Amino acid sequence: MRRVIIGGTNSGCGKTTVTCAVLAALKNRGLNVSAFKCGPDYIDPMFHRKVIGVDSHNLDSFFFSRDTLLHLLDEYGKGSDISVIEGVMGFYDGTCGSAHSVSEMTETPAVIVIDCKGMSDSMGAVMSGFLHYRPNSIAGFIFNRLPEKLISLAEKLCCELETEYFGCLPKNSFTVESRHLGLVTADEISDIQERLAGLGELAEKYIAIDKLVGITDSPLPSFEAPVIPRFQSAPAIAAARDSAFCFIYPENMELLEKMGCNIRYFSPLTDSKVPDADGLILCGGYPELYADKLSANISMTESIRSCISGGMPTIAECGGFMYLHDRLTDKNGSSYPMAGVIHGEVFPTSRLQRFGYITMKAEKDGLLCKKGKAIRAHEFHYWDSSDCGSSFTAEKSDGRAWKCCHCSDSLYAGFPHINFYSDTVIAENFVRACISYGERNGQDTKDSPCR
Asked: Which of 35, 86, 152, 271 has the lowest tally of Cβ within 10 angstroms?
């Protein structure tokens, strides 16, 4: 399997720009390319998809065991000519969730992106530090925003440090506006295809694409694939997907499909009601940017409320959790009625709330797990709630802890995001609940508002 990790010296060094440039160049050559993102990020994979036309998947060494991570890389990369894996933050940042850890687990060589703005010979000090900080599989460097007059210096430094020069990207017009959750999404950029095409042309001119393609062609380390049960009753799952609800792991949906589920996507922004289904997923996204439209779609909020009050198994994460509140206040201070399932309000804050990886321990039996069960999750949000729930106790690696999430036999709702591959039993429990709901309500429509 040909594969490479494009890591970076730090957040903001240009990893996504370089990764998209390389993907575009590879696609233009007619290669079958798969893309991955280290860590839990949702937005970067959207840009990958715009380039290669198929879903990009997350490889998260906090969420996943070594075997599961290797299985997912094999599952989504085995039919490709090359797999390109974008790193997260700086190459070594994040300890167990770092790009370095993914590189070591998968025995994948890494190419490190350096932002060269304002540097010349100091590039060598940065390179030396990354090469010698700890054992690694760094194969070489790509120099972002490198003036052409310094290309010969970058090549010379690579030669002196006995590492590879994989090229550079000069300063270019590919810039993406930032917002409180990082970058804007790919769908929000009107000329995204033109910009990505331009990046591909720059990569073909300045980056050693042939050298990247030939960086490795070795088998993955051996692993045991997770056992995925397939249920005969095939429940239908209604899943929100639109501009307001766009943070969803494709592997989560594909795992449900492997278990026999039929996924029915719908838009809380434009549809009038939840489609006929046995279960409901409200994923994360940007409901605060569309609060007026979500609030005005009264038939949808009534449908959501009716489904949940009727016992439909429901997972609502972060943005989906926000949508379930009585009210949502946007960044301008305007307050809007929402679905009215969680009796409280969500409101903006000035900084990230409870950011990062957590392990949640269930305080009682619920939809996803039994009391005492631990679930790995991730939080990334500026908005907060007057009622975050208390069904789980969340704990960070530094010992900080807090109560979170609303859970019952039919509901999981909270800020934390979950990847089903962190523990496939979570998905199994959800599917079984959906099957039971369908069996109870399938023949009696008056008791089943969403069927």
From this structure: 152
